[in-house]
Design brief:
Elements lengths: L8 H36 L4 E14 L14 E9 L6 E13 L9 E11 L2 E9 L5 E8 L7 E9 L8 E9 L3
Antiparallel strand pairs: 1-2, 1-8, 2-3, 3-4, 4-5, 5-6, 6-7, 7-8
Length: 184
């Protein structure tokens, strides 16, 4: 090594520390990526939860003084009813009942200007589930599971739903995807 530049001890140590830092960073990033992948898997298979999809048919809206084709207005209280099954066209497994209060919001114009407050009852062979939440017409909405009876005693969780009552121009169907926490 005669005639070439000599590396000082300090330079060698500095390069070694940088190399170790880079290696630690790569290992850390790999570990972080693995934790993210694991968390995603755990979120979709969380112990103690059950996913249940219910399909609605014969979906009807009724209200005192509301004629077919008229949409509910602020202050109207309407009821929704329908039959529940597990798959389209399959045997009915239960009934659905809801009370819906039509509200106006102080948000003014836009998607939050009119909302409905809904209270749901899913009557099933092995118990009843109760849920509630606010909805905006024509979109998928999220509700809270607030309790249950029978097999669903102590249940909590949430669910999404889309409803299309015949009286508001829909096809008379609904679909709900429930994520239940057993509560036990």
């Amino acid at each position: 090594m005669e005639g070439g530049p000599k590396a000082s001890r300090r330079a060698i140590l500095r390069h070694g520390v940088v190399a170790l830092g880079a290696l630690a960073g790569a290992v850390g990033l790999s570990s972080a990526a693995e934790r993210v992948r694991s968390a995603t898997v755990l979120a979709s298979t969380v112990p103690g939860t059950t996913t249940l999809t219910l399909r609605g048919s014969e979906w009807h809206l009724a209200a005192s003084g509301l004629r077919r084709g008229d949409l509910p207005k602020r202050g109207d209280l309407v009821s929704l009813t329908g039959a529940l099954s597990i798959a389209p066209g399959s045997e009915k497994v239960g009934a659905f009942f809801a009370s819906v209060q039509h509200l106006d919001s102080p948000a003014g114009h836009g998607p939050y200007a009119t909302v409905q407050l809904e209270t749901h009852t899913f009557q099933l062979p092995d118990g009843t589930l109760f849920g509630m939440g606010t909805t905006m017409a024509g979109s998928e909405n999220t509700y809270a599971i607030v309790g249950g009876t029978g097999r669903y005693l102590g249940a909590s969780g949430s669910y999404t739903g889309q409803q299309s009552p015949i009286e508001t121009g829909g096809d008379g169907t609904a679909i709900f995807t429930l994520t239940l926490n057993s509560g036990r």
